[in-house]
Write a structure and sequence with these properties.
The chain is mainly α and 331 residues long. The protein has helices at residues 52-69, 75-84, 89-95, 102-107, 114-125, 127-136, 144-161, 167-178, 184-202, 221-227, 248-260, 266-274, 277-283, 298-311, 320-330; strands spanning 6-8, 13-15, 17-28, 31-42, 212-214, 217-219. It is built from 15 helices and six strands. The model has no long low-confidence stretch (mean pLDDT 90).
């Protein structure tokens, strides 16, 4: 029984009502969808009765089913975005290059097109992607305050996503503790070479993350977003590191990459990777200056570095030195 009374046309009076969960169907864009809704009946005479709140709830349920069936972002996720990235609805719409009221309409319940939905889904799932949009489209915002607030929010999300016990993060901390002047560009290449040579020697990958074939070589997107503010400056780090957490095989690979590859600048290492099959194959026929987020398949990395190990007759990780010197002479 509901304490709120509504008008019953049969009784011609304000009455209590009883709501029951029932299967329903509705049509959107000439297609019928089945969903579960609520139906109200007069508690006095039993006739169907109109309850505005239940009608609104049923409509939301219908559109939820429509969204699921057509891979459209859920309304709840849309409403989380402004809080997640600490940005107003209108500034977010402008940042995305949409009309000033577009995102507000979606926030209030309008269903976005598939194209706009895909962008919102990616923003929801990938803080790093949002961080790139924030930087590239910051001029769309009407105030620097909106940019600064959102930048802090997404920076916090990226830091949280970089779990303190993830393998790639631990390796980064070791690299920073050992390399006094490593730049973001060099760091990316060091991680790529560690991934490749570790597989060549031990037939398994250290990192679950995929790298992408960017203009400047292999890049781990989240790592780029984390250190992008350093640009061409070395990443500072003075924290001590206990390397005893590594196996002897891991440490041998890390140290060899540090001594034999990190001695070169990021730009030199970029030249190395531009002459290697994984980056070249992933880029395909793209011109060298065209941006790309194509993933460098792990199979390409494993095949290439296993071939390198065999070609240079590498017995131990210290033999990476000959490959590095050869690449430097050929760049």
């Amino acid at each position: 029984m509901n304490t709120r009374k509504v008008f019953c046309e049969m009784c011609r009076d304000d009455v209590d009502y009883v709501a029951a969960v029932v299967p329903m169907a509705g049509t959107i864009k000439e297609k019928e969808y089945s969903y579960t809704g609520k139906e109200a009946h007069c508690a006095r005479c039993g006739s169907p009765i109109y309850v505005p709140e239940l009608s609104d709830s049923n409509l939301r349920a219908l559109y939820d089913v429509y969204r699921q069936a057509n891979n459209i972002i859920a309304l709840e996720k849309i409403r989380e975005l402004p809080e997640r990235y600490d940005i107003g609805k209108r500034p977010l719409s402008l940042l995305l290059g949409w009309g000033e009221q577009t995102f507000s309409r979606y926030y209030d319940g309008d269903v976005p097109t598939k194209q706009y939905s895909d962008i919102l889904v990616r923003i929801y799932n990938e803080p790093a992607f949002y961080a790139e949009l924030l930087e590239s489209n910051r001029k769309n915002l009407k105030s620097t305050l909106a940019y600064e607030k959102s930048r802090r929010a997404v920076g916090s999300l990226l830091s949280d996503n970089m779990s303190s016990d993830s393998k790639i993060n631990i390796v980064i901390q070791y690299l920073l503790s050992q390399c006094e002047d490593i730049t973001p560009l060099a760091l990316q290449k060091a991680l790529y070479y560690i991934q490749g040579f570790y597989f060549a020697f031990y037939q398994t990958f250290l990192f679950t993350e995929d790298c992408q074939a960017w203009v400047h070589g292999p890049v781990y997107r989240d790592i780029y977003s984390r250190y992008r503010d350093y640009r061409f400056d070395p990443i500072g780090n003075t924290d001590p590191f206990d390397a005893s957490i590594f196996s002897s095989g891991e440490k041998a690979i890390y140290d060899s990459v540090i001594h034999n590859l990190c001695c070169y600048s990021g730009k030199v290492l970029e030249c190395f990777t531009h002459n290697e099959a994984p980056w070249l194959t992933a880029r395909g026929d793209l011109p060298i200056t065209v941006p790309s987020d194509r993933i460098i398949d792990k199979a390409l990395i494993s095949d290439y570095f296993c071939t390198v190990k065999a070609k240079y007759n590498m017995i131990s990780p210290s033999d990476i030195k000959e490959y590095a010197q050869d690449m430097f002479l050929r760049k």
